[in-house]
Amino acid sequence: MGEQVAILGAGVMGETLLSGLLRAGWTAADVVITERRPERAAELAAKYGVQVMENDAAVAEADTVVLVVKPQDIAGLLEEIAGSIRPSALIVCIAAGITTQFVEDRLPPDVAVVRVMPNTPALVDEGMAAISPGKHCDGEHLARARALLEATGKVVQVAEHHQDAITAISGSGPAYIFYVVEAMIEAGVLLGLPRSTSTELVVQTVYGAAAMLKETGEHPTVLREQVSSPAGTTMAALRQLDDHKVRAAFLTAMEAARDRSRELSSGSA
Ligand SMILES: NC(=O)c1ccc[n+]([C@@H]2O[C@H](COP(=O)([O-])OP(=O)(O)OC[C@H]3O[C@@H](n4cnc5c(N)ncnc54)[C@H](OP(=O)(O)O)[C@@H]3O)[C@@H](O)[C@H]2O)c1
Fold first, then answer.
1. Full-prediction pTM beyond 0.85?
2. Which residues face 127 on adjacent strands?
3. For position 269, what pLDDT does the model report?
4. What is the pLDDT of residue 267?
5. pLDDT category, 266, cuts 50, 70, 90?
6. Measured in angstroms, how far is the CA atom of residue 96 from the centroid of ligand 1?
7. Of 66, 69, 126, 260, which is best to mutate to test ligand 1, by the most ligand atoms within 8 angstroms of its C-beta?
8. Over the stretch 9-63, which tens digit does the pLDDT of each residue have?
9. Contact predicate 170/119, CB 8 Å
């Protein structure tokens, strides 16, 4: 039997992680889940063939414990499991705004904790997760957390004080892109295209542009200049974006997300 992983809380993110692990080569025998709602637990057990356990029993056997409940449920969950955690276990916490210290303070001394900010494209194995080590983490713990999250996308390691910025960029980031996509689809309709055609054009354009960035490794400025011929159509459009201060709006928007993340994690919501 391989490393035992317990996923506590099998909602949207918990299922995303579970299905990613199984696709990446973990077996159903390696993973157990816990869940507050019995009908949800039964659904996932039937769908993935994994065992459902109570929280304390699941952590008693686990090498890695992944906390995937809402931030407001974390304190209660830690109280439930603190007495059953193996001293050598790694705790991976995926709850937005919960610090490693918050988790460490509620567990036996020296338990290793890694904090993660994931994002929703993990659903299609294109996630971007940022991991930060707590006080008692060593390289082996970080490697384990990384392997777990690489099942659903890319992973970077950052100092924990950057997690609010990470939340503003990659955590909330998919929503900004969806917003831009919505606006471009509306523009297509304004220009007389059927909505379905406009949607297909915009979605593929965004997908293609993202693939170009990733595959060529070129700076976005270089790629943008390649489609901006002198006095051409793209320059006419980009001038309008500059006139409407779209770049400045992105900077301000992400500062606001960073600040809101700080407020939420300090509990002054
Ligand atoms: N950056 C991102 O884009 C992103 C995206 C998703 C999630 N997240 C983080 O991931 C975490 C989970 O989010 P989610 O969307 O997956 O939430 P969710 O769908 O509500 O899933 C959490 C699940 O855990 C269950 N639960 C709560 N307390 C429990 C306990 N003590 N024992 C066992 N199960 C328990 C909940 O049951 P009930 O329904 O009964 O409450 C729910 O089914 C959050 O902390 C969030 O911050 C981040």
1. yes
2. 153
3. 61
4. 75
5. confident
6. 10
7. 69
8. 999 999 999 999 999 999 999 999 999 999 999 999 999 999 999 999 999 999 9
9. yes
95 CA → ligand 1 middle, Å: 8
Which residue ranges have their beta carbon within 6 Å of ligand 1? 8-9, 11-14, 34-37, 40, 55, 68-71, 73, 76-77, 94-96, 117-120, 171
Integer Cα distance of 252 and 260 in angstroms: 12
pLDDT at position 265, please? 86
CA dist., res. 168 & res. 185, Å (int): 24
Mean pLDDT of 192-217: 98
If phi > 0 it is left, if psi is from -120 to 50 it is alpha, else beta; for residue 218 that is beta
Which atom of ligand 1 is found nearest the CA of 97? 47
The protein residue whose alpha carbon is closest to atom 42 in ligand 1 is: 11
Find where tokens 């390696």 sit.
Answer: 30
> Does the structure show a pLDDT above 60 at 1?
no
Strands 112-117 and 127-133: antiparallel
- The whole-angstrom separation of Cα 112 and Cα 26 is 22
What does the pLDDT look like over 137-149, one tens digit per residue? 999 999 999 999 9
Joined together, the tokens standing for residue 264 give 């939420």
Count Cβ atoms within 10 A of the Cβ of residue 151 and give its class: 0-12 exposed, 13-18 middle, 19 or more buried. buried
* DSSP assigned state of 90: E
Measured distance CA(233)–CA(230) in Å, rounded:
9
Spatial CA neighbour of 66 closest among 174, 152, 170: 152
